[in-house]
Amino acid sequence: MRDERPLAAVPRTVFAVLIAALGLQIAVQFTQPKPVARAEALEAPPASEVFRVASLGEPVALAQLTTLYLQAFDNQPGISIPFSQLDYARVIRWLERIIGLDPSGQYPLMLASQVYSQVPDPARQRLMGDFVRDQFLLDPDVRWRWLAHVSIMAKHRMHDDALALRYAADITRHAPAAPSWARQMQIFILEDIGELESATIMLGGLLAEGRITDEHELRFLTNRLEEMKNVDNQTGMTKNGRPTRPKKPEF
Q: How far apart are CA 168 and CA 201, in angstroms?
């Protein structure tokens, strides 16, 4: 066993130095400002070519990992970043890279239309709406549902009837495989904003095409067309005394 010196053998000056050092350390800790979490800015994504090389032949897997990174970016250690503080131009570029890796994936368009578009900022909502429209035009028969969503958002959240009508018209024009309720959105928006003549012409044309085969839907739209033709613009009632806007199918 080693010889151990008793504590009493330690010089008092050493004790004093140790106590002073401990006190100084405690004082320094108390005077230091508390650490503050700072939000990191969302960087621009790498070029598409870089993503393709990095995928190592597994672009869908990389698309999923990139989606997780982007989705988690607003929750950084010690801080939660409001969407309104994100650079939406960069968010869109990240979403474009993800779609480029996995064109059949729908999740980026869901994020754009139902997550990032919920920020109470019309400019950012418009950016997301136009991004969804641009992507819709690349594959209308698959991506129509996301444009339908932003059309509803434009009308009821942004109160921008012209924008809602533009998005709905694109579905009617470019997505023949979309369900009838989506292709009819343009007609009902026209009616809601008082463009009854245009709505009547469009509904008449839709019925004349003969593509609506469901008996209940055909009866509803035929009756609706007759009521729109007979509407009294002064009273807002049809000639048989019914209101101009009966309950329509929910979109």
A: 16
Domain ranges across the chain? 44-160, 179-251
Name residues whose C-beta falls within 8 Å of residue 51's C-beta, 6 or more positions apart in sequence: 45, 59, 62, 66, 97, 100, 101
SS3 232: strand
Question: What is the reported pLDDT for 240?
Answer: 44
Q: Render the burial of 43-68: b for 16+ CB within 10 Å, e for the rest.
A: eebeeeeebeeebeeebeebbbebbe
- pTM > 0.85: yes or no: no
For residues 207 and 169, is the Cβ–Cβ distance under 8 A? no
* Maximum separation of any 2 CA atoms in the chain, in Å: 113
Token reading at 227: 């009521």
Using pLDDT thresholds of 50, 70 and 90, give the confidence band for residue 42. Answer: confident
